[in-house]
Design goal:
Blueprint lengths: L1 E7 L2 E10 L4 H9 L7 E12 L1 H16 L3 E5 L3 H10 L1 H4 L1 E2 L1
Parallel strand pairs: 2-3, 3-4, 4-5
Antiparallel strand pairs: 1-2
Helix pairs in contact: 1-2
């Protein structure tokens, strides 16, 4: 998986490409958690994300919880049909803000 980060004030947008799975999720979580201080919004752009595993879902939940404790929030954009189906089946569509 590859990703790029962009900051706009207190909002970070992370555009992901490839697969968010057991191999890639820990590094993404570590990289983003290191930058959460002072952030009020994290936007994950899934336009080029092909797949998300349960490890990826765990990272989304951990990041959302970390942001909520700091008064911020997380949302996901550009979700394809396959990932939207995973969100629906897992109930993440009720937990995450999806634009």
């Amino acid at each position: 998986m590859e990703y790029t980060k962009a900051m706009n004030g207190t909002e970070m947008t992370v555009a992901l490409k490839g697969r968010l799975d057991t191999e890639t999720a820990p590094q993404l979580e570590s990289d983003i958690k290191d930058e959460l201080d002072g952030m009020t919004s994290l936007v994950l752009d899934f336009k080029e994300l092909e797949y998300i595993s349960s490890a990826g879902l765990r990272v989304l939940l951990a990041l959302k919880k970390a942001l909520l404790t700091k008064g911020g929030d997380l949302c996901v954009t550009n979700v394809n049909k396959a990932i939207a189906s995973i969100f629906h089946i897992s109930g993440f569509d009720m937990v995450l803000g999806i634009r």
